[in-house]
Amino acid sequence: MSYSVGQVAGFAGVTVRTLHHYDAIGLLVPSARSHAGHRRYSDADLDRLQQILFYRELGFPLEEVAALLDDPAADPRAHLRRQHDLLTARIERLQKMAAAVEQAMEARTMGINLTPEEKFEVFGDFDPDQYQEEVQERWGDTDAYRQSQQKTASYTKEDWQRIQRESDELTRRFVALMDAGEPADSEAAMDVAEDHRQGITRNHYDCGYEMHTCLGEMYVNDERFTRNIDQAKEGLAAYMRDAILANAVRHTA
């Protein structure tokens, strides 16, 4: 069984020009020629090509590949053992590199350079990475998302703890107003809503009134947000939404 240069190029994923070059330098000389003088490759030639491509993938120069393959003291099993050892070492290096890149990507994407213990200390049972894929899919192309990633990329544990304290304080103020019977469109409730908007702008991205009202609607339309917010007090998500809307009307009407 023999194969044309085009067939071999297709099998191996290389160009015909590459095979011509290997032939010209004596690295892979086809075993036969057709009557018309065209190259014909045997199964043994394909085996040698596979060895060549293994070493090339590992970064060996062609001269060194030729020396390795033409070494009379080496048998095919020795080549395979050497390649296996080299590939195993390379895989280990690449896995370590991939792990490091993944960690860097996660830190850059979330802007949270915290250990698992620190994340638990700051956020409790809420995992900020849990919804990252959804967040990036929904808002990844927006200026607000890009601004938030840039701003939070350098945040430390202390920064996130400060932000969490600010959030807890806003929640406490909203709950206190609800307990006191203050309407969501009262001056006091609108003032807390305004502090909430300014906190987002200060810590994450420029949050205008239109953006803020969209967030307020999401608090009641997405049951995950509602469930999380209402842990502090039943109905808090809706109260915040109404206060945010009233505050936006106050400042834009």
Q: Which shape, going by the Cα principal axes?
A: rod-shaped
* Number of distinct helices: 13
Instruction: Indicate the structural class.
Output: mainly alpha
| Unreliable residue runs | 118-132
Largest sheet: 3 strands, antiparallel
Overview of the molecule:
The relative contact order is 0.06. Helix 9 runs antiparallel to helix 10 and helix 10 crosses helix 13. It contains 13 helices and three strands. The termini are far apart. With 253 residues, the chain is mainly α. The chain is 70% helix and 3% strand. It has a three-stranded antiparallel β-sheet. Strand 2 (32-33) and strand 3 (39-41) form a beta hairpin.
Labels describing this entry:
253 residues; mainly alpha; 3-stranded antiparallel beta sheet; rod-shaped
Mind sketching the topology for me?
Elements: E1 3-4, H1 5-12, H2 16-24, E2 32-33, E3 39-41, H3 43-57, H4 62-69, H5 76-110, H6 116-123, H7 132-139, H8 143-152, H9 157-179, H10 187-203, H11 209-221, H12 223-229, H13 236-252
Antiparallel strand pairs: 1-3, 2-3
Helix pairs in contact: 1-2, 3-4, 6-9, 9-10, 10-13, 11-12, 11-13
